Amino acid sequence: MREEDEAEDNPCPADPAGLRRVFDTIGVATALLDRQGRIADLNAAMLRAIGCRPDLLIGQPMAGAFVWGGREDAADRFAQAVAGAGRGMAQELTLTGDGTWFDIALTPLPAESGGEPAGIVMTAADASRRITAEARLRGQEERLRAARDEVARAGQAKVRFLAAASHDLRQPAQSLTLFGAVLAERLSDHPQLPLVQTMNRAVEAMRGLLDALLDVARLDSGIVSPDMAPFAVAEMLERLEADYGPRAAAKGLKLRVRPLKAQVRSDATLLERLLRHLLDNAVRYTASGGVLLGCRQRGMMLCIEVADTGVGIPTDKLDEIFEEFVQLGNAERDRSRGLGLGLAVVKRLSHLLGLPVRVRSRPGRGTCFTVEVPLHASWNPNGTERAMPCLDRPGALALIIDDEELILQSLRLVLEQWGWDVLAAASGEEALRQLDGAERLPDVIIADYRLRFGRTGVDAIRDIHAFAGDLIPAILLTGDTSPDRIREARRSGFTVLHKPVTLSELSSHLEEARGRAAAE
C-alpha cells in the first residue's frame, strides 16, 4: 500500500502538527511541566488564562506565570502542590491571586520506563461560577438555619407561654370551682341556691372550654410527649365512674362501667384524658337511657368502649366530627353544649399515643367509640390485682401546701366540709414548722407542684417524709403544661392531678390515699 493511502485511511496521523492542533483545541487550560514545575508546553486555553506570549513562558516556573496579586499563601500552596506532583502524588487545589478563582489539578505523567514521573500535566478551570454558586448555597443554608432557629425560638416561647397561661388561668378556675361547691353546700336550703348552681354550671363550662383550648394548643405545638408505662385499667375506670356517675345521674342517665382486670401499656394520664372527652360527649348528647364504659379483650389488645343511647351521628359526618369547632345539631352555638373541641383533642391524642379510635353510630339510636390499647406483655390474665382500698374514717388530717392564698382557702373549706382536719401552709418550710408542734402526723399531703423561690411540691413532700420518718400518701396539684414539669412530677411517684380538679376527682383520690395509709 502506498504511504498516501495509509495517510488517507488514518484520520489522526501521529504527526507533531496534528497533536499541536488537538492540544490547542482542548477547551481546558492545560500545561505540561517538568518535575520541578517549569513549563515545557501549554495550550491556547492556558495562554489565554495566563495572558502572556508562549516564548516568554517556556522554561519558566509555572508558579511565576500566574499573577498572585501579592498573595504569598497562594504562591506557597501552589509550589508545595507542584513538589508533591513531582514526587508522583496527584494534587488538587483552588487558588486565586488577582480575583479569578481556579480549580487546579496536577497529575504526574508516568515515565515509559517507570520510576519517577516524566513530568506533570496541569489543568486549570475557572472556579468563579462554582464558588459563587456555593456561596449562594451557603447563604441559603444560613438563611434556612436562621429560619429554623427562629421557628425553634418561637416554639420554645410558645411552650413557655402555654405553661404560664395554663398555670395562671387554672389557678382562679380552681378557686371558683371549690368556692362554688362550698357555697352551694352552705346554701342548700336557701332560695338563692339556683343562682349559685347556675354560677357553678358556668364555672364548669369555663373549665371545660379552658381544658379543651389548652389541650389543642399543647398537642399542636408538639410539647406533649407520652410517657409509656404499664398500668391497671380498672383503677382508671373506677376514677372515671366516680366522676361521671353523678354527672350522668343529674341528667337522669345511668352510667354503667364494665371494667376488666388487665394491665395495658400506654400513657395513663393522656389515655384517661382521651376517655374523658369521649365521656363528656356521651353524657352531653344523651337525653335518655344511659352510657356504657366497658372493656373487652381481643387478642393482645384491650378494646375500651364508650357507648351511649344518644342522638347518633349520620354516616357521612363520622369523619367531620373530629375537626375543630364542629358540633352537629348545635347551630345556635349553645356554649352549655361545649365548644366542639373534645373530639378534635381525641383525634390528636389518638395520633400521639398511636391508639386507633373507631366510631360506629346509628342516628337516633346512639354512638359507640372504641379505643384499642395494647395489653402489657407480662400481664397474667389469671393473676389477681390489688383492689383499690377505701376507708371511711372521719377526722383524718390533711396537710395542704400552696403559695396561692385563694387555693389554700378554698381547699381548706372543701376538706373541712367533708369532715377533715386541716393544716394549711404556703411553703414546705412553713409546713415543717406547723408539724413540729402538731400532736399527730397528717394522713395525706396535698401540695401544689410549683412553689415560690424555685421550690416544688415534690421537694416539700420529701422534706416532710424525712421529718416524719414515714412515707405519707401525697397528691400533687399542678396547672403546668410544660412537658418537662409534667415528667418531673410523674417521676416523683406521687399522684398527680391537673388543675382545675373536680370535687369528685379530689374525693376519689383522697379516699385512695387514706386507704393506702390504713393498709400500711
Automatic annotation (TrEMBL):
Phosphoprotein as UniProt keyword: yes
UniProt entry tagged with the keyword Transferase: yes
Lineage: Bacteria, Pseudomonadati, Pseudomonadota, Alphaproteobacteria, Rhodospirillales
Gene3D superfamilies tied to this protein: 1.10.287.130, 3.40.50.2300, Histidine kinase-like ATPase, C-terminal domain, PAS domain
Coiled coil (UniProt feature): 130-157
Stated name of the protein: histidine kinase
Histidine kinase domain mapped to chain residues: 164-377
PROSITE patterns named among the record's database cross-references: HIS_KIN, PAS, RESPONSE_REGULATORY
4-aspartylphosphate modification, residue list: D448
Keywords in alphabetical order: ATP-binding, Coiled coil, Kinase, Nucleotide-binding, Phosphoprotein, Transferase, Two-component regulatory system
Domain PAS span(s) in chain numbering: 15-60
Organism (species): Azospirillum himalayense
